[in-house]
UniProtKB/TrEMBL annotation:
Catalyzes the reversible conversion of ribose-5-phosphate to ribulose 5-phosphate. The gene is rpiA. Pathway: Carbohydrate degradation; pentose phosphate pathway; D-ribose 5-phosphate from D-ribulose 5-phosphate (non-oxidative stage): step 1/1. One of its GO terms (cellular component) is cytosol. Its EC number is 5.3.1.6. NCBIfam families: PRK00702.1 (NF001924), rpiA (TIGR00021). This is Ribose-5-phosphate isomerase A. It comes from Methanosarcina lacustris Z-7289. Keywords: Isomerase.
Length: 234
């Protein structure tokens, strides 16, 4: 697992995050992702709520995005109250040319996947450094603590090298918002993300993994403030 860069002062991330906020209009129920890029979207939506009367409901994907949304003044709802969302916006750790993404650098990918699949449209915001022709970053796999050894064995059988993610400023493993462990699995270049996604999902005790095959659009921010939009070919 490479070190997480959550710098909050990035012109590229800001450009992408703010551009995606323009997709949101009054009356929408919006999935709010987790991480430093979508944080710009959440703050911008908060500004539009306060200054322009934007009337939306948000569904958060983590404790972090919940706190940010509350601070921004965005009204929140739940998937129980609003099971179908108009739009979900989130960041990614890596995204390939066919818009397969790896997420979960912040261990939020389980709720992020549930929220993104609940949305009619899923938009990823990122800077250029996240783009790649093929996926080759470690894949975060959230597992029930009870199932850790089985998951390690099964991931090895799939050709992966799993490592239990360790906490920072706490001894022992990272515990997700759902009370589980995260295995970061190295697979080298992932030639067929959709097949690997299905294989990981089939392991008993795997709660969710970080391969996302449901991205509709990618907003790539540049230093000069411009944004390139890539749409998935269906
Ligand atoms: O678990 C975390 C999420 O999947 C994030 O959306 C992802 O790690 C990207 O975060 P950032 O925008 O901070 O690079």
């Amino acid at each position: 697992m490479t070190e997480r860069n959550t710098s909050t002062d990035s012109p590229e991330k800001r450009a992408a995050g703010i551009a995606a906020a323009r997709l949101v209009s009054s009356g929408m129920v919006v999935g709010l992702g987790t991480g430093s890029t979508v944080a710009y979207t959440i703050k911008e939506l908060g500004r539009l709520v306060r200054e322009k009367g934007l009337d939306i409901l948000g569904v958060v994907t983590s404790y972090q995005s919940e706190m940010l949304a509350i601070e921004a003044g965005i009204k929140l709802t739940t998937l129980s109250q609003h099971p179908e969302l108009d739009l979900a916006i989130d960041g990614a750790d890596q995204i390939d040319s066919e818009l397969h993404a790896i997420k979960g650098g912040g261990a939020a990918h389980t709720r992020e996947k549930i929220v993104s699949v609940s949305a009619k449209r899923f938009v990823v915001v990122a800077d250029e450094s996240k783009t790649s022709t093929q996926l080759d970053k470690t894949v975060p796999v959230e597992v029930l603590p009870f199932a850790k050894e089985l998951a390690v064995k099964k991931i090895r059988e799939l050709g992966g090298k799993p490592h239990l993610r360790s906490a920072v400023k706490k001894d022992g493993p990272v515990i997700t918002d759902n009370g589980n462990f995260v295995l970061d699995a190295e697979f080298g270049v992932i030639k067929d993300p959709e097949t690997l996604a299905l294989q990981l999902s089939a392991i008993p005790g795997v709660v969710e993994h970080g391969i996302f095959c449901n991205v509709d659009e990618l907003y790539i921010g540049n230093k000069d403030g411009s944004v390139k939009i890539v749409t998935r070919q269906k």
